[in-house]
Amino acid sequence: MSLGITADDAALASFNGFKDNRDKMYVIFNISGSHIVVESDKGKDASYDDFISAIKESGDPRFAVVNVEDGSGSEKIVFVAWPPDLSSGRLKMTYASSREEFVQSLEGVQLKLQATDDGELTVDELMRLAKCDV
């Protein structure tokens, strides 16, 4: 079921810059009205812990892309869906119904992670996911 929520042009441009330039650690997206928009991003000087804190900060669902080292000297682009257990059912449903269409619009995503609680979104889990794909 689609609610007609689409990525705005700036969000797609931000992702394409993220993918092509590899100058950012992460980009976080949220839903505003009927569009998926960029909420924040950070450069390569950010840490995985910075990313995890930022995506959890609002307490509401978010989407993100993050560059994760795979252990062989390369990076993987990981799409993260964060619908925390404690957020409202309506918000979680809105994000869930938009997720697949959004991730398909992000050409170049290599891995996907859906995490609903703190134990599922950790530095160790990101690293494990990237290394398993090597």
Automatic annotation (TrEMBL):
Residues 2-131 form the ADF-H domain. InterPro entries: ADF-H (IPR002108), ADF-H/Gelsolin-like_dom_sf (IPR029006), ADF/Cofilin (IPR017904). The keyword Magnesium does not apply. The keyword Acetylation does not apply. Keywords: Actin-binding. Gene3D superfamilies: Severin. This is ADF-H domain-containing protein. One of its GO terms (biological process) is actin filament depolymerization. It comes from the Eukaryota. Belongs to the actin-binding proteins ADF family. One of its GO terms (cellular component) is actin cytoskeleton. GO terms for molecular function: actin binding. Pfam families: Cofilin_ADF.
